[in-house]
Amino acid sequence: MKISIKMEKDTLVLKLDSERSFFEQKAEIEKYLMSMKSFLANGDVKFAYDGADLSFDEELELCRIADEAFCKEVNFCHQKRPPHEILRHVMSNNERIVRRFIGTVKEGESIQSNGDLIIIGDVNPTAQLNAAGDIYVIGNLRGVAHAGCQGDLNSVVYAMKMNPIMVKIGELIGFNPQMSQSNANGMAMVENGEIKVKLV
Q: What's the pTM?
């Protein structure tokens, strides 16, 4: 089965081959998306896939390929959850558009998202993350993370290394000094009106 692509409403959907692994299709995917570059030169891009069961790591790699192919950050409709079933499906179609940032968030920098926010890299001290939804740091979180900044107390903050200066969810503020040197996978969430940080 060949890879194909089509528009569904306002979303570009990549149809993958269910009989081949993502690794086997990767080069073909890169070439195919590059061929669509001029078609998607203007405007924002909503991007999704169908036809194959990818892991979360494979989804992240597909995001990276799409960003490079289109020379812009695409709005990817994630269909998978990261490890430990952290990513919540809150939209009626079980998809959620997120913003991704690849690289280190340096001291004093601020990254914002009107939905979920995925950082693929470290977040240095005094850097700030703000998201209306969840925040996921695939790296070391050492700065300030404010999830649910528009008031959603069901939001979470996840980091592969949870060492934040401060975590906020909605208007609640939390800091667990025992986690500050943990270098462990951690998730902050609201329980009984307080922010709790748990190892995951």
A: 0.58
